[in-house]
Amino acid sequence: MAGSLILGWLTTFLPRLKFLHSIIKRQGKRWYAIFSVERQALSASIDTNNTIGIDVGLNKYAVLSNGSQYDNPRFLRKKEKQLKKAQRKLSKKKKGSANYIKQVQRVRKFHEKVANQRKDFLHKLSFNLTEDYSVIAVENLNIRNMVRNRKLAKSISDAGWGMFRNMLAYKCERNGGMLIKVEPKFTSQDCSCCNNRVKKSLSIRTHICTKCGTVIDRDYNAALNILQKALEELLVAN
Q: Which of 176, 186, 192, 193 could crosslink 44 through cysteines, CB 3.0-4.6 Å?
């Protein structure tokens, strides 16, 4: 019944949607209705003058080539103490008992809340960016390799960079825009003003060019380089 009401709302207020099929599933104590739809392509052409480069990170979640910054919410890290406490309680329960099952549900609820908070944050950020810009440039990061670093694995997983990139991709396409994934090599090292390569470790947060004297935030420098690489790709394509 609820699914039919939602479907009716979708087809009434979003007429470009063509309904394909639906799935009703239960996760924990909640029920979810998942709809698969097909949307008619927008006729608007891509505005190649309305572009932005995005550098994702762990200190700041995203730094844009126009200087805008978005803080990293660190949802998992904020709940980590509570989660560890809940997991310790679980380990002391007799497996299969009523109290054990209740504690499993509590631990699962923690994970669900963190996942929902992360998705909500990423949906809102990706929506705003794809509404504001026609062409968005990001690094084509190999996240699977990056999470092999034990010191950074949990923080990278908590950030959800892959999910964010996927959201940007389909929302750009939906809005008639374009997502360009550029080679990440040396985006943090090269100077965005003169292309001089300035080697620096992850702990160095400021880009200081010894050639032209440019002094800017490391992530902002990377965002400018990401945008420049995307513009070069567009120029070649056209």
A: 176
How far apart CA 125 and CA 133 sit, in angstroms, is 12
* Structure-derived torsion over alpha carbons of residues 39, 45, 51, 56, reported in degrees to the nearest 10: 20
Does the active-site annotation cover 71?
Answer: no
| 219 among known catalytic residues | yes
pLDDT one-digit tens code per residue, 98-125:
999 999 988 888 899 999 999 999 999 9
Average pLDDT of span 89-103: 89
Report the DSSP beta bridge partners of residue 23.
34
- The single residue of 131, 132, 139, 173 carrying the catalytic annotation is 139
CA distances from 107 to 94, 120, 185 (A): 15, 20, 39
Q: How many CB atoms are closer than 10 A to CB 106?
A: 14
For 9-21, what is each residue's pLDDT tens digit? 454 445 455 666 6
Whether the CB-CB separation of 73 and 117 falls below 8 Å is answered with: yes
Q: What is the pLDDT of residues 163-190, one digit of tens each?
A: 999 999 999 999 889 999 999 999 999 9
Using a 10 angstrom Cβ sphere, with 0-12 exposed, 13-18 middle and 19 or more buried, the burial of residue 115 is middle
Phi-psi region of 67 (alpha: psi -120 to 50; beta: other; left: phi over 0): left
CATH class (in words) of the domain with range 44-237: alpha beta
Q: How far apart are CA 140 and CA 131, in angstroms?
A: 21
Residue of 71, 183, 219, 232 marked catalytic: 219
Given the residues 38, 47, 55, 217, the one annotated as active site? 55
Whether 132 is catalytic is no
